[in-house]
């Protein structure tokens, strides 16, 4: 196995001396494997890192010591990244610059840290980042758990569909053949055709299940009962993102127009995204935030907060309060989705099973009726 240290590959036998040269405790960590694949840090990873760094910096540790604390915590992918960041810092780079070099960390994280370094408020910025990414991680986790049932239901429905085509309809065809019946309705002929090509049907159904799992977030927005809750969740997530990022940049002393570069790519609503692009242009021309956000596509909650915050001179505080209130709304949205999911799935499963069983029994009784008619 090979290991990466300051951009050079060394053998395992050399790892201890290299860590000593970097000023790290050679017994505190194991050598960190070099990985060619780039895996972005998850919101949960970023939240944990921001929380740990903020705690250690607030307790009086230097940044170097705080990073040693992150590195020595456990030997995983996060540790490998910050091990290499530490080597960049020891070579003379700022923490934010070392973060910006990494594809695994989002630009918002690196630029917020840079603003915190410049303003001398790095612990406070890290605390805000921790709250922001923890909320994102919680939402992803809850939605992921809520989607376990629909995925399982779709798989179960696919299994039932394949079983009925492969088992019941061939029996029905054999029964009809014995009764001397060869003419069926169009729907019945369609299902007989599917049962004759069961391998192809199985491949198509498997592809459908895979596509559902891949695009489940988009599909859920069109389901009955659940769709409206998903759309509302997207709206509240957009507001939370705007409020959190603007709170971050204003607290850290960064230019407001820079915040739009981090907000716009993550906005779900197309209309809001376009309105924010226009707002960014107005800010660049010198307009106030209240003037820039004056658009029907910008949520009223954002416009109200900006107007009150600019008049009172407490814009960061107002954005922080709005972000906190959105967390409560997001939790309610997730609960609605969790409660509505069984109803929507029952409808979907019921329609599929009813179509199969209805066609089967309709054909079955039609055959019985023809047989009985022929016996008279």
Characterization of the model:
With 376 residues, the chain is an all-alpha fold. The chain folds into two domains: 2-139, Up-down Bundle (Receptor-associated Protein); 147-376, Receptor-associated Protein. The chain contains 17 helices and two strands. The protein has helices spanning 15-21, 43-58, 63-71, 77-90, 95-101, 107-119, 122-146, 148-178, 186-196, 198-214, 216-220, 226-252, 256-263, 270-284, 289-292, 300-312, 315-375; strands at 2-5, 8-11. Strands 1-2 form a two-stranded antiparallel ribbon. Helix 7 packs parallel to helix 17 (315-375) and helix 8 (148-178) runs antiparallel to helix 10 (198-214). The termini are far apart.
Rg (CA only): 29 Å
Give the biggest beta sheet.
Answer: 2 strands, antiparallel
Q: Based on DSSP secondary structure assignment, what is the total number of beta strands?
A: 2
Q: By helix and strand content, what is the structural category?
A: mainly alpha
Average pLDDT score: 79
| Unreliable segments of 5+ consecutive residues | 1-36
CATH homologous superfamily title of the largest domain: Type II secretion system (T2SS), domain F
Strand order, biggest sheet? 1-2
Following the backbone from N to C, one meets helices and strands in this order, namely EEHHHHHHHHHHHHHHHHH
């Amino acid at each position: 196995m090979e290991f990466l240290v300051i951009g050079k590959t060394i053998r395992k036998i050399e790892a201890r001396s290299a860590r000593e040269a970097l000023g790290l405790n050679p017994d505190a960590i194991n050598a960190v494997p070099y990985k060619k694949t780039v895996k972005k840090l998850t919101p949960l990873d970023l939240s944990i890192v921001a929380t740990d760094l903020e705690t250690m910096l607030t307790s009086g540790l230097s940044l170097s010591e705080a990073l040693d604390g992150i590195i020595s915590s456990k030997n995983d992918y996060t540790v490998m990244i910050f091990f290499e960041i530490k080597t960049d810092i020891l070579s003379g780079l700022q923490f934010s610059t070392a973060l910006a070099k990494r594809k695994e960390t989002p630009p918002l994280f690196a630029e917020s840290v840079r603003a915190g370094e410049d303003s001398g408020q790095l612990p406070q910025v890290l605390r805000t980042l921790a709250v922001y990414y923890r909320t994102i991680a919680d939402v992803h986790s809850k939605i992921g758990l809520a989607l376990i049932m629909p995925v399982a239901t779709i798989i179960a429905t696919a299994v039932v569909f394949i079983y009925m085509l492969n088992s019941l309809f061939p029996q029905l065809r054999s029964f009809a053949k014995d009764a001397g019946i060869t003419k069926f309705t169009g729907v019945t002929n369609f299902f007989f055709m599917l049962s004759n090509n069961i391998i192809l049907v199985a491949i198509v159904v498997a592809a459908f299940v895979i596509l559902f799992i891949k695009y489940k977030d988009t599909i859920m927005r069109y389901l009955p009962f659940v769709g409206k809750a998903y759309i509302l969740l997207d709206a509240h997530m957009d507001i939370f993102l705007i409020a959190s990022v603007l709170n971050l940049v204003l607290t850290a002393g960064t230019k407001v127009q820079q915040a739009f570069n981090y907000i716009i790519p993550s906005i779900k609503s197309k209309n809001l995204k376009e309105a924010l692009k226009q707002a960014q242009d107005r800010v660049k021309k010198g307009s106030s935030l209240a003037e820039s956000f004056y658009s029907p596509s910008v949520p009223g909650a954002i416009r109200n907060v900006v107007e009150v915050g600019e008049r009172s001179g407490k814009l960061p505080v107002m954005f922080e309060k709005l972000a906190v209130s959105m967390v409560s709304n997001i939790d309610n949205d997730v609960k609605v989705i969790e409660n509505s999911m069984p109803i929507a799935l029952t409808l979907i499963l019921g329609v599929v099973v009813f179509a199969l069983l209805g066609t089967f029994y309709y054909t079955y009784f039609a055959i019985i009726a023809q047989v009985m008619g022929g016996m008279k």
